[in-house]
Amino acid sequence: MAGATAPPGKAGHAPHGPLRRLGGFAVHLLTASGAALVLLALMAAVEGKWALMFLWLGIALIVDAIDGPLARRLEVSKVLPSWSGETLDLVVDFVTYVLVPAYALVVGNLLPQGLAVPLGIAIVVTGALYFADRRMKTADNHFRGFPGLWNVAAFYLFLLHPVPALGSLGTAILIVLTFVPLRFVHPVRVIRLRWLTLTLVSLWGALAIYTLWRDFNVGAPVTILLCVIALYVVGGDAATRLVRSLKE
To answer: How many independent structural domains does the chain possess?
Structure first.
């Protein structure tokens, strides 16, 4: 009968106990805590404490890496169907990966004065569009286009400190690559060579922590290793596919 209330457990979702619901909500709180970390990162950026800013963003990155597996393991989408973990994750990801790094690039004296603000605006606009694109990931869990990892791009600009013109050129190229259907490897979900990818990403994390501890004052060996790992993550999958296609 229209308007009748379905009995408990008959509305399309099986009832879940309070402990499971509490555990599910704890995962949502963990995801949302990334926004708090981003606020701390922004406060550090306003004060020009760039290493501290990247440290907070790095902790937010760790939170982002563990909340997804936890949510899937605890079946949070079924336990708390009224809450969208995907939407929450996208909101936090946008401010973590795009908004705060864009601010750092605009005010960090890394880009030409006349181009810093326009490039910053382009970063946040294209980043917002990218996060709204339902095709942002391929069927085999690669990112389609530059995946809006402006926190990583900003890290390398602060590390390398290229001349502003070169920094603006690199930034503009990444903005364009946001909409180019190139494949970028997801370090966790892509199965092919995952052992190598995870090993290199772990090494990258250790080197990045050391770099921040040294306030970006590191020698050439650390800088070269960081750049080589970045080249692998960006172009390793494409190179592997190219070699395989040439052998066929």
So the answer is: 2
Cα distances from 65 to residues 125, 136, 192, in angstroms, run 24, 18, 19
Both tokens of 33, joined, read 């805590």
Contact 22, 80 (CB under 8 A): no
Name residue 89's amino acid.
D
Q: Which residue among 151, 184, 217 closes a domain?
A: 184
Given a contact cutoff of 8 angstroms between Cβ atoms, the answer to whether 101 and 150 are in contact is yes
Distance CA 226, CA 220 (A): 10
pTM: 0.84
Is 13 part of any domain?
Answer: no
pLDDT digits (tens, 9 = 90+) for 107-148: 999 999 899 999 999 999 999 998 888 777 766 666 778 888
Provide the token pair at 122.
Answer: 């382009």
194: containing domain: 185-248
Strand ranges in the chain using DSSP code E only, listed in sequence order? 143-144, 183-184
